[in-house]
Structure formats: C-alpha cells, structure tokens
Hints:
This protein is mostly helical. It folds into two domains: 2-78, Alpha-helical ferredoxin (Fumarate Reductase Iron-sulfur Protein, Chain B, domain 2), CATH 1.10.1060.10; 85-163, no CATH class. The chain has helices at 10-14, 25-34, 37-41, 54-58, 65-78, 85-101, 106-117, 122-125, 127-135, 147-163. The longest helix has 17 residues, at 85-101. The protein is globular, with a radius of gyration of 19 Å. 14% of the residues are buried.
Amino acid sequence: MVQACIQCGTCTGSCPNAFAMDYTPRHLWRMVMMGLTDEIFNSLTFYLCSACYSCTLRCPRGLPLTEAMETLKQIAVKENRLVNKPSQLFYRNFMESVRRHGRVRETEFMTLYFMDMKHPFLPFRYMPLGLKLLRKGKLSFQLPSGGNTLDALFRKAVEAEEINP
C-alpha cells in the first residue's frame, strides 16, 4: 500500500500530531518500505495518529495513509506488540463500558482503567477534576440503559470481521 510513497513529506507537514511522534509519518512509511518491523512496532508514531485524514487528503499519490496507520495498530494488537500500554488499556476499558451499557459509564470506566494501570496513586492526580465533575452533576452513578441492544450490534460486527478480515 505505501510502496507507492514518493517520500515528499506532505503527510508529515499535514499531520497535527507530528511534533509529538518519535518518527514522522514520512519516516514511518520509509521504515515500512524497508521492512524495519521491530523499529516500527517499538515506535509510538502510529498510536499518536488521531485519524484526522489530513495526510490521506493531501497525499499527492492518493495513498490511504490513515488506514495504513490503523492497520499498524491492528497488527500491534494482534501480535501483542503493545508499546503504548496506557493508551491500549484506556481504549479497551472505554469500549467494554460502551459494549456493556450502550454508552460510556464514566465511573466504571475510570475505575477499571486505574485498576488495570496497577498504579495505586494515579487516581489521586485526577481527584480535583473528579470532584468538580461530581459537584456539577456531570458524573452519574446510575446505570445507563440500552446496553443489550448495542451488545448485539457489537457481536454482529465481530462476526462480520471474522468472516471478512
């Protein structure tokens, strides 16, 4: 897919997150072309992609670069090459809450996330924010409804993905 890349750097110039990446998108595509698998999966570059599609829209070759970044994320998960563990735990716990309740239940989600992080003092950093949200009525302790319907939808999506990988 990225073999047609001409290394012009438009993807890097278009990327709002390039400043935070350890390798620029252009550099990452070069590593893909060179087959530098370990370097690719030890980098945080594809984890920091926000899927804004700026690179894809501006690429002079019309390469689907955002999809390529997503594919790298999927391969990293499949091959258990999770470098950015906090990000993976955040995503997994967020989606589990959505699957169970039909929307994110913030209190459950954050509790599970902090437990998975195995860092007992981490929640204390967020206590002032949590108290503000609680005072303003932005945190709910009630169970959301509609989870059963959405759970069936998620199962169908997983089945469809297994049929057409």
